[in-house]
Automatic annotation (TrEMBL):
This is ABC transporter ATP-binding protein. It holds the Pfam family ABC_tran. CDD domains: ABC_DR_subfamily_A. Residues 5-234 form the ABC transporter domain. The lineage of its organism: Bacteria, Pseudomonadati, Pseudomonadota, Gammaproteobacteria, Pseudomonadales.
Length: 308
């Protein structure tokens, strides 16, 4: 089966001369949740907009479910639903009309049963006759998703789906996205919240300065790039790491009460046994110890920093 989205040697230079994307190659598999991460201005929205046919690319190929977004636009676009960053619905329309109208834009015959299903799945059924302007911010976001699903797309793009929403609504949105995936929809989301990617994504792509610097299964990424810390709470504070232990990956906390040992989770030997033996030899006693894994956030910050 071909991938749902296939991007090959994609470049984008805006009319201003700014090169926003450089040689992007990416495949999105059917039924996965793919999170695209990157700092402000990295090129996430540009990439999504090109795949969705809103922005023209300079060179390269984009296929949606096998259809070329440039030469076979209608077929490619019909496979895609896009939930943009900004809420752009007519405030005076009702929920039902807005969502039904969206379906018509894709040349699909009316299908009230489908619209009903979408509105019910998004807990919007009770609001179907309400005008958009009378809805809460969270409800408006749901309407945007309903619009994007109105023409039964196989692939759904969510650009910053939870920007500026409160924690509770964010959790609701995550739940919703998971349910959509369970129903067979492929999901690509951009986010600034690393926690969101950590929580939701099957795979993660990191884009920095227009280049896709990494695409990896989330768990593999966290295992490969993640570090673990062992923190030893000392019996007596130290002034500095003893000279005799300076060959180890040890740091002293600012107040001198904790020794922090960092090790690679992917390494076969962590060196912990050696560390503990040498501490005992040096008479460095500790009363407590704990380990901590780096979060995706720390991994991401290091990746993007390394690139700059
Ligand atoms: N229409 C345009 N003309 C010229 N430059 C543009 C245009 N749109 C975007 N850019 C530039 O292209 C780069 C990538 O922008 P893009 O919006 O894709 O980034 P992003 O990763 O989505 O950022 P954010 O996280 O802030 O939304 C930025 O430097 C931006 O200023």
């Amino acid at each position: 089966m071909h991938p749902d989205i296939s991007v090959t040697n994609l470049y984008k230079t805006y009319a201003s001369g700014h090169q926003a994307l450089k040689d992007i190659n990416l495949e999105i598999r059917r039924g996965e949740i793919f999170a695209l991460l990157g700092p402000n201005g990295a090129g996430k929205t540009t990439l999504i907009s090109i795949i969705c046919g809103i922005v023209n690319h300079t060179s390269g190929t984009v296929l949606a479910d096998g259809h070329n977004i440039a030469s076979d636009y209608r077929a490619a676009r019909a496979r895609i639903g896009l939930v943009p960053q900004e809420l752009n619905t007519d405030a005076f329309e009702t929920v039902w009309d807005t969502v039904s109208f969206s379906r018509g834009l894709f040349g699909k015959a009316p299908n009230p049963a489908h619209i009903e299903k979408v509105l019910k799945s998004l807990s919007l059924w009770d609001k179907r006759d309400s005008r958009i302007m009378a809805l809460s911010g969270g409800m408006k976001r749901r309407v945007m998703i309903a619009k994007a699903l109105s023409h039964e797309p196989q692939i759904l793009f969510l650009d910053e789906p939870t920007a500026g929403v409160d924690v509770e609504l964010r959790r609701d949105m995550w739940e919703l996205v998971r349910r959509l995936r369970e129903s067979g929809v492929t999901i690509i989301l951009t986010t600034h919240y690393i926690e969101e990617a950590e929580e939701m994504a099957d795979r993660i792509g990191v884009i920095s300065q227009g280049q896709l610097i990494l695409v990896e299964d989330k768990h593999t990424l966290m295992r490969k790039l993640g570090k673990k810390e062992l923190r030893l709470h000392l019996q007596a504070p130290l002034e500095s790491v003893p000279e005799s232990l300076s060959d180890l990956q040890l740091e002293l906390s600012e107040d001198g009460t904790e020794l922090v040992y960092t090790f690679d989770t992917s390494e076969e030997r962590t060196g912990i046994a050696t560390l503990l033996r040498r501490l005992a030899e040096q008479g460095v006693d500790f009363k407590d110890l704990r380990t901590r894994e780096s979060s995706l956030e720390e991994i991401f910050v290091n990746l993007v920093k390394a690139k700059v």
